[in-house]
User: Fold this.
Amino acid sequence: MLVVDANILIRAVLGVRVRSLIVKYGAVMDLFAPDTAWAEAREHLPRILGKRGVPVEAGVALLNSPKKSFSR
Assistant:
């Protein structure tokens, strides 16, 4: 099992590499992101996306999409 923190969740939204690793290995191993990690990512992501000029709604939707790959 691999425990994922808020920084990894945010990187999964902002970058391609982390997202692809989650998709690739999420099918063969247990990934665990505690509720606090999801909450922290949701708290900080809108500000980060705004600074980068990325639509916040799209980023938050992407954050929520891999959730099924994570054990809760």
